[in-house]
Amino acid sequence: MASAQLSEILKQATGVLAARGEGVLLFDEDDRRYLDFTAGIGVTSTGHCHPRVVEAAQRQVGTLIHAQYTTVMHRPLLTLVERMGEVLPEGLDRVFFANSGSEAVEAALRLSRQATGRPNMIAFHGGFHGRTVAAASLTTSGTKFRSGFAPLMAGVHVAPFPDPTHYGWPVEQATDFALAQLDYLLQTMSSPADTAAFLVEPVLGEGGYVPGNERFFAGLRERADKYGILLVVDEVQTGFGRTGKFWGGEHFGAKPEILITAKGLASGFPLSGIAASSELMAKAWPGSQGGTYGANAVACAAALATLDVIRDENLVENSAQRGAQLKEALQLVADKHDAITDVRGLGLMIGNEFRDADGKPDGATATAVQQEAAKRGLLLLTCGAWGQVVRFIPALVVTSEQVDEAAAIWADAVNAVVAR
Ligand SMILES: Cc1ncc(COP(=O)(O)O)c(C=O)c1O
């Protein structure tokens, strides 16, 4: 009998075959319990199978699964649009939905170009914006996302992100450098008249869990206003309470013209979106965006339940509080090991940077510790250009006890791998 196998294109961070999930916990087919501090790469904001999300999705499955939104309209979508108004930054009162983060990034790109009539995008070094070819063209967190399928999309320029760890400078100096290089780029490579938008993450995600800062975002805003360039903030990973505020950009007073959201929005159902002002959206060409599956009715119902759960269970506050607890515990481990040179992040988006004795990024040790933690029942992911950062990104429902348990496993895993 003919049989097929899964393609080698996929690479898996753990050997776990997940059978079921419950909150922060995952269970494999032998019913082994894991603390899932990956949350499906920051997606299961309300935890695995939150009863209210399950109930809403099940009800919708039995009512209407696919109401194709360029053919007919459906109530879960219309209600979600209204409810997004409660959480979106002021002035962003028009929403468009797609399925994945990459698609939403492309939606923002199309809108930016159509609205300004300008071709170029300026992205920031270390940023991750997705894997479709246009999104990959805007991605500079690692060559693994770009190599071997060139040519990429034209019209992309890259300016530095104020990353103190990478440059080895204080944050002030890294910010001065990033803004000065942005000015130089606008003067020498992409004139303001050709530049549609700046595209930036509030916290570099895949690029190593590096937070931006207030002065950097003020500098972007100032230049955007001066030159009529749009500020597009990619909140795919940082949104929906992940950083201890509803949007990551709130930490830095970021005032985007376009906000991109996905991941935590629907607790695991594929749903993404962009938001902008009515004036800006009116400049898009009608019918220029859409898609077969965008704003799927079950995904929208799950997103509505997600918004309810985040509000009713105070998950944004929990993210801030459990994040502070976790960061403190991880810092205590780092204090005991020279190999961990930095513990950083906001809310429940925390990275541990590994460096070798020469101060070079140490992806091998980071991966060894991540694997050791998985063996001990704690699922984690790496990130950073060299895979040198181990990131903690649990569901926002994580409890104080689960944070303590994860920190204890982490301490054991680090001890097992790293000689002092
Ligand atoms: C900041 C950011 N933008 C865009 C994406 C792409 O999202 P997706 O994988 O759903 O296409 C991601 C995914 O990790 C992300 O973290």
From TrEMBL:
Cofactor(s) the protein requires to work: pyridoxal 5'-phosphate
Keywords from the UniProt entry: Aminotransferase, Pyridoxal phosphate, Transferase
InterPro entries, per the entry: Aminotrans_3, Class-III_PLP-dep_AT, PyrdxlP-dep_Trfase, PyrdxlP-dep_Trfase_major, PyrdxlP-dep_Trfase_small
GO molecular function annotations of the record: (S)-3-amino-2-methylpropionate transaminase activity; 4-aminobutyrate:2-oxoglutarate transaminase activity; identical protein binding; pyridoxal phosphate binding
Catalytic activity line of the entry: 4-aminobutanoate + 2-oxoglutarate = succinate semialdehyde + L-glutamate; (S)-3-amino-2-methylpropanoate + 2-oxoglutarate = 2-methyl-3-oxopropanoate + L-glutamate
Pathway assignment: Amino-acid degradation; 4-aminobutanoate degradation
E.C. designation(s): 2.6.1.19, 2.6.1.22
Cited Pfam families: Aminotran_3
Superkingdom as given in the UniProt entry: Bacteria
The UniProt record lists the keyword Transport: no
Similarity remark: Belongs to the class-III pyridoxal-phosphate-dependent aminotransferase family.
Listed name of the protein: (S)-3-amino-2-methylpropionate transaminase
The species this protein was found in: Mycolicibacterium agri (Mycobacterium agri)
